[in-house]
Design a protein that fits this description.
Largest sheet: 21 strands, mixed
CATH architecture of one domain: Orthogonal Bundle
Helix content: 25-40%
CATH topology of one domain: Transferase(Phosphotransferase), domain 1
Number of helices: 23
Number of strands: 50
Oligomer: single chain
CATH superfamily of one domain: Transferase(Phosphotransferase) domain 1
Strand content: 15-25%
Distance between the termini: 46 Å
Length: about 1000
């Protein structure tokens, strides 16, 4: 024992000596710098990545601390770079004591509070970046006194007030090359006077603020400017042609969404385009969403041959498209939509072989669609909708192998649909509606499995039968064939369109029964079969559907009894009018005769007796207990006994196939509580009153079942977290596979976000923040803490369940990806516990799928972060991501980005009303702040580049902060004040 004490004493001595030696070698200046850094560290309240761990170690020299860099003599700190470290807290004025600091980068963290004006003491500072934090208040006036400053980036914060004139008119302005104040709430004018010269400025980014007035003429002195971004402000006046003319190095010019006009009383665009001719490296021009009038001048073709994108949409531009534009041989995007253009598409436009996206919609263009458009090898989007085009759809479109979206709706097109369109194997949207197209629907077109968003052929003169090939569209969200002359029956094979959410077949001459398989579609929300000649009874599957919200069966020949329960509970007689043989309990509908009621009572009894007898004879021998136990042991990898000994596991009874049948009433429609791509979920009660949910996998998709069932079993077996669904047991036979889970009494989050059938299950904001916090913690566990790392791949409201206490549990791991270890192995394909992407399955649900998955990228944690971001934006807006897709083809992220930050107020106000805010003004301010935080976090999570998204650990930390603030705002404010007090001390 004595020797142990002596050894410990010696060890402590060595540590102390080491520390003394390190301290002893430090100069007085480095000691001062060390004290300043430690004072700065006191203002950091959260360091989830433990980035500052080395700052605590007494044996580490300050120059070796994370993010710290010293000069060669190691006696002065010259650089502090803590960007993207997930740090939370305030920026201490003590940093101003780092007298030799030349670079300060605290970007992409969660710093709050004000920018310390003491930073002006950093006279050697050349780079200052505080972008993408939560900084508030105004920009310190004295920052303009940093005479060595070359790079200043304060974008992506919550800064208010005016731009300090000193930033533009001081000794520092001579050295400044990069200035970014974008994405704040800065107001006033640009304070640049004629005597001030930003002669070295290369980048000026002021987008998404509340700036107003005219562009100051003194900006013309910045002749080295390469990037000028002023979009989404309130600037007025004529386009700044005299200023732009003196910027020969300009490459990017963004002036969209202001109130600019063209010259000569808003009639002449030529002076402005002429001012750009001398910019030989010019690459992108954005002027959308202004009030620009006049014609597009021919001189546009004299712009730089390097030009890639032109955005002139949402203006008042008239006249024709100049053929001279074809000289822009490298142009990839041309957007002239929503103007007053007329004339035809010049044939010269079709010579621009690098075009990828062409938007000409919502104009008055006429004539035939040039066949030569089919010769553009890279064309991925062509939008000619809402014009006056006539003639045929060119057969040459079959050559467009990259075409994803073809929008020709609301024109005057005639002829037939070219079968050759079926060769466009990447097509996701096809809209030919509101034309005069005749003939049959080619089977080649309806067999396009690539269609993921919608097929719209409505309001035409189409005839003939519905092609059976429609059933191949298993990823399409909406099909609209209404207002044509289609005949024959509705094929039951439509039930294979498993992703379908909207089906409109109204206004045709269809006859025969309505297939029950259509009502069983798991995501179907809208069905309109009105004004046809359909007959027979309305299938019960429509009434039993848990997703259907809008139904229209009117003006057909339907017969039988109609109940006002289930999906029909919110319908009125308007949905059934014109069917004289219908009776039932819908208000305004005649009551059914008693003999019908007698048969309806007897038939279920006979069916129940028959089913019970059949089960007694054939069911039990097929599910012997020994066989079930052996299968369960195989599923658990032979560790059944160990699992049974786990005292932390709740003790659930083993459940046989017979018991599942009894618990669910023979899997009756009345027990159905949900449907998905691979099966149905039924509620049930075991003999010991345990309430269960039984997820039965559909045997019709047997080719995909084995992997999905095995995958979900493996995940549920290995994960242990309060916010992840737990498994009770499984039941597996060659023809039957089911997961038995605890029944979540409050259903899914989807049910609460979108109450249906007259029910009211809406949540308030505090409950929703708690739910999001739970989901974030569950995903963070899957990504970073689970024994087997998991990428969920299908996060959405219907896969988030709520228990009795409204605690959220992430469920449905059917297409999840398991990853052994911290990172994906390079030979994952050979690993039985690793699955590529989703084993051939669609990696998620449309609207929630990360954009990189569409380019063939492997499933990743960043993809789950994207889905979580969509979920946050969906909660705030009350809009499903697919609702936005239907409107304009953009994602929910893109739609929100267009409203951010200047047009968020209506969205926030609607959210406050939707989530039942208590009637107190103080609470309104708090709720508004929380909604804005959720929007910003959602936009961060849904950034296009996966590498720029935060991790789920970061997201969970931020959600935890919001949860704390919402539950106790006063203590949160006190905590902030205390932190600021500590820093000042």
């Amino acid at each position: 024992m004595g020797s142990c004490k002596f050894s410990m004493f010696c060890f402590l001595c060595l540590v102390i000596v080491s520390f003394v030696e390190v301290e002893g070698t430090m100069s007085s200046q480095i000691m001062k710098d060390r004290a300043s850094l430690l004072s700065f560290k006191k203002g950091i309240v959260s360091d989830p990545e433990k980035a500052l761990e080395t700052w605590k170690s007494p044996g580490v020299h300050v120059c070796n601390w994370t993010g710290v860099k010293c000069n060669n003599g190691s006696d002065q700190v010259i650089e502090l770079d803590l960007s993207s470290r997930s740090l939370h807290g305030t920026i201490s004025p003590a940093l101003a004591n780092l007298s030799s600091l030349s670079i300060l980068d605290l970007s992409c963290n969660s710093f709050e509070g004000h920018i310390p004006e003491e930073l002006v003491n950093l006279v050697q500072l050349t780079q200052l970046s505080l972008t993408w934090n939560f900084l508030q208040g105004s920009i310190p006036e004295k920052l303009g006194n940093l005479h060595q400053l070359v790079y200043l980036n304060l974008g992506g914060n919550r800064l208010v007030g005016n731009i300090p004139p000193s930033l533009f008119c001081n000794k520092s302005s001579a050295s400044l090359q990069y200035l970014d104040l974008s994405n704040n709430s800065i107001s006033g004018e640009i304070p640049l006077k004629n005597e001030c010269k930003l002669i070295n400025l290369n980048y000026l980014l002021l987008w998404s603020n509340i700036l107003e007035g005219k562009i100051p003429k003194a900006l013309a002195n910045s002749s080295k400017l390469q990037w000028l971004d002023l979009e989404s402000n309130m600037f007025t006046g004529e386009l700044p042609s005299e200023i732009i003319h003196k910027m020969p190095q300009l490459q990017y010019l963004f002036l969209s969404y202001n109130d600019f006009v063209s010259h000569d009383g808003n009639t002449n665009l030529e002076p402005f385009f002429a001012s750009l001719v001398n910019s030989s490296n010019f690459q992108e021009l954005e002027l959308a969403g202004n009030n620009l009038g006049g014609e597009i001048p021919s001189i546009i073709g004299d712009l730089s041959a390097q030009l890639l994108e032109i955005h002139l949409d949402e203006n008042l531009i008239y006249g024709s498209i100049p053929p001279h534009i074809s000289k822009l041989v490298n142009l990839t995007l041309l957007n002239l939509s929503s103007n007053l253009l007329n004339g035809t598409i010049p044939p010269e436009l079709c010579a621009m072989k690098k075009l990828e996206r062409v938007y000409l919609s919502n104009n008055s263009l006429s004539g035939e669609i040039p066949s030569a458009l089919g010769d553009l090898p890279h064309l991925g989007l062509l939008d000619l909708s809402k014009n006056k085009f006539s003639g045929l759809i060119p057969d040459s479109f079959a050559n467009l192998s990259q075409l994803r979206r073809l929008l020709l709706n609301e024109n005057q097109l005639t002829g037939t649909i070219p079968p050759s369109l079926g060769k466009c194997v990447n097509l996701e949207i096809l809209d030919l509606s509101h034309n005069r197209i005749s003939g049959i629907i080619p089977s080649e077109v309806t067999g396009l499995r690539s269609l993921k968003i919608y097929l719209n052929l409505s309001n035409n003169l189409l005839e003939g039968l519905l092609p059976l090939e429609l059933s191949k569209m298993d990823m399409v969200l909406a099909i609209d064939l209404s207002l044509n002359s289609l005949s024959g029956t509705i094929p039951p094979q439509l039930g294979s369109c498993i992703a379908l959410e909207s089906l409109n077949l109204s206004g045709n001459v269809l006859e025969g029964p309505l297939p029950s398989s259509v009502g069983q579609l798991p995501y179907l929300k809208e069905v309109d079969v009105s004004s046809n000649r359909l007959s027979g009874e309305i299938p019960e599957s429509f009434q039993a559907s848990s997703t259907l919200k809008e139904l229209n069966f009117s003006f057909n020949k339907f017969t039988g009894n109609v109940s006002s329960k289930g999906a029909f509970s919110s319908l009125t007689m308007d949905s059934f009018q014109g069917n004289n043989a219908l009776c039932g309990s819908i208000k305004g509908m005649p009551n059914c005769k008693k003999k019908h009621n007698f048969h309806l009572v007897i038939l279920p009894i006979l069916l129940t007796l028959f089913t019970s007898a059949a089960i007694s004879i054939f069911g039990y021998p097929l599910v012997r207990r020994s066989k079930f136990r052996r299968q369960l042991s195989d599923f658990k990898g032979g560790d059944l006994e160990d699992e049974e000994k786990d005292k932390e596991e709740p003790k659930y009874p083993r459940v046989s196939y017979k018991q599942l049948i009894e618990a669910t009433g023979g899997f009756s429609p009345s027990s159905l509580i949900g449907s998905g791509r691979f099966g149905h979920v039924y509620k049930g009660i075991l003999q010991d009153n345990t309430r269960i949910a039984v997820k039965v996998l559909d045997s019709k998709t047997a080719g995909e079942l084995t992997g999905s069932f095995k995958r979900e079993c493996q995940i549920l077996k290995r994960t242990r977290h309060r916010n992840l669904i737990r498994i009770i047991t499984i039941c597996s036979r060659p023809d039957f596979k089911a997961l038995v889970l605890p029944l979540m009494s409050n259903g899914s989050l989807e049910r609460h976000l979108y109450p249906s059938h007259g029910c009211s299950h809406g949540l308030d904001l505090e409950q929703l923040v708690n739910v999001c916090c739970d989901v974030a913690e569950g995903l963070a566990y899957l990504h970073h803490c689970s024994p087997v790392k998991v990428v969920h791949c299908d996060l959405k409201p219907s896969n988030i369940l709520l228990d009795d206490d409204m605690t959220a549990l992430v469920a449905d791991f059917g297409i999840a990806k398991l990853v052994k270890g911290v990172e994906e192995s390079s030979n994952a394909s050979s690993d039985p516990m690793s699955f590529t992407s989703t084993d051939g399955l669609l990696c998620g649900s449309v609207g929630y799928i990360a954009p990189e998955y569409g380019m063939g990228k492997r499933a990743s944690t960043e993809g789950d972060v994207y889905s979580f971001g969509v979920l946050l934006l969906e909660i705030v807006t009350g809009r499903r991501p697919t609702d936005v897709l239907f409107q304009d083809g953009s994602s929910l992220y893109e739609w929100m980005k267009r409203h951010y930050p200047d047009r968020l107020e209506p969205i926030v106000e609607q959210a406050i009303v939707r989530y039942k805010m208590p009637p107190f003004n103080y609470n309104r301010v708090i709720w508004r702040d929380v909604f804005l935080e959720l929007i910003e976090l959602g936009l961060l999570c849904t950034q296009y580049s996966p590498s720029t998204r935060p991790t789920m650990l970061d997201v969970a930390s931020e959600m935890g902060r919001l949860k704390q603030y919402l539950s106790n705002p006063s203590s949160y404010v006190i905590q902030e004040a205390t932190l600021k007090g500590d820093v000042l001390v």
